[in-house]
UniProtKB/TrEMBL annotation:
Matches recorded under Gene3D superfamilies: Isochorismatase-like
Keyword Repressor (UniProt): no
Protein name stated in the entry: nicotinamidase
Cited Pfam families: Isochorismatase
Gene Ontology MF terms: nicotinamidase activity
Alphabetized PANTHER family for the sequence: LD05707P, PYRAZINAMIDASE/NICOTINAMIDASE
Pathway: Cofactor biosynthesis; nicotinate biosynthesis; nicotinate from nicotinamide: step 1/1
InterPro entries linked: Isochorismatase-like_dom (IPR000868), Isochorismatase-like_sf (IPR036380), Isochorismatase_Nicotinamidase (IPR052347)
Entry keyword set: Hydrolase, Metal-binding, Pyridine nucleotide biosynthesis
Amino acid sequence: MKALIIVDVQNDFLPGGALAVKEGDQIIPIINQIQEKFDFVVATQDWHPEDHGSFAANHSGKEVGEFIILNGVNQILWPTHCVQGSLGAEFHKDLMTEKWKAVFQKGTNPLVDSYSGFFDNNNKGDTGLSKFLKNNGIEEVFVCGLAEDYCVKFTVLDGLSEGFKTHLILDATRAVNIYENDFAKAMIEMKNAGANIVHSTNIE
């Protein structure tokens, strides 16, 4: 049985948001169409406390894009985004949510960031996504959403490590591209790890 995982299609990651992904809004109609091909759909949601350690604003003298060591992990500093209960943390109003079986929130621990929908960046905090999928007989996952070079990539990689046959839906994701070629580098990394790269029109 297959499932669709929709990653972080939230206002702060869309044009006009605090951590906007260029053309991020263009994937929403595609994701809505894709959902019709799945009986099982779940979503992830960045859900940070205001004092999250990945926010540059919480580190005196530090700027967005700089790196620090956060709880033993090399951490890039982000603009304040997807704060719990804020408009920026909400899913975009045009995104269809009626078919969703569950939403898995991540990044709730201020001491560690969490890109993947499965685990935090220390690989210790478990969202429960893997167990939920397996308990429902899911063996194959299709991943889409934002952003391709961070949360989508790590969700794909963890899906593979958890034993799921894992696909990235190429036309239903966009990258932050903080550094040039991040999109292409992430694509190569996912493909080399065993992910299948597919187009939405080829999903049966």
